[in-house]
Amino acid sequence: MAKYLALTNDRVTEEHLHDLITSIGGLGGDVEVRQSGARLLLIAEALAAEGLEAALTACEHVRTVVDADLPHPLAGPVADGGRTVVRVAGVAFGAGRPVLIAGPCSAENPQVLLETAKSVRDAGAAMLRVGMFKPRTSPYSFHGLGREGIALLSGVRDEIGLPVVTEVMSVRDIDLVAGVADMVQVGARNMQNYSLLVELGRAGVPVLLKRGLAATVSEWLNAAEYLLANGASDVVLCERGIRTFDRTTRFTLDLNAVPVVKERSHLPVIVDPSHGTGVARYVGPMSAAALAAGSDGLIIEVHPDPAVALSDGDQSLDFDEFAALATRLRRICSALGTGLEPAPGLAPARP
Ligand code: PEP
Ligand code: MN
Q1: Using a 6 Å cutoff on CB, does residue 210 contact ligand 1?
Q2: Residue range 219-276, pLDDT digits in tens
Q3: How far apart are CA 135 and CA 329, in angstroms?
Q4: What's the predicted TM-score (pTM) here?
Q5: How far is the CA of 334 from the centre of ligand 1 (A)?
Q6: Ligand 1, from 141, 240, 277, 316: best to mutate by most atoms within 8 Å of Cβ?
């Protein structure tokens, strides 16, 4: 039995669907129809693979047809080897220029957030990162400013003019976070939180999907598959280090993942050398290595005074260190025949 997945566009009607189901029925096959955001996901089966594929492709409102028996059909490589460019508020991931994302691990207070945001913008970051809902190992640690922080974020975004990526930990907070953030981060600890992935897919918001700290590349790409199957179209992967036997560094940054993902997926992949090493002085070398390996971007933690940071101070760069690194990364990009993705120049206020 051949099995294919097909994604429609949002203009498909009951009538188109009826015609398609009839033609696949004529092949002795069957179609299961699922809502996938504004589109439909068709899961079609029939004995004759060629006829089935042709029937799906013949429908003018079907955009993607893939073999459902592939390991992660929607996240996997596309037939012509093409790569997806994910655009987030004017910032392009995967278009050839690496995207530099930077900011504090957590927004400890409005001053730290604003000061850091301005500093990373002036140093050349194209996007701001900041944690408002922080997953922490201890329940007694600082967990971010939460809802209050999200309220703060929209003003900061407008003031500095950079798009923002921030983490959502719970299905409960998706609407709140997606209402302000340009991109929502799924943290390493939530990579296999399938109910969160399903709801984020349905929300249709751009997602930065971090690799779980003990996840194989295949599990990670299947997590992306959950997002894509449920309606997401803008997914960027992020390698952030995995747990190995070696405790010299906080995690082991798996740069193999960059070329491996590029072979096994059409999605852009960026690297987080801050969590991947846990040590500020290793962030520069591993950023350089990530770009050389073909990473579509970097996400780096920066704090005005890392020694007193409430989370991840050991791996955070101060303002001068980040500015120096950004200069070095620009040089590396030009040696690689490209440049860093510029900040998009957002309009000051969003509707
Ligand atoms: C973070 O980005 O601050 C973070 C908690 O990342 P990760 O989920 O990769 O640990
Ligand atoms: Mn952090």
Answers
A1: yes
A2: 999 999 999 999 999 999 999 999 999 999 999 999 999 999 999 999 999 999 999 9
A3: 29
A4: 0.96
A5: 29
A6: 240
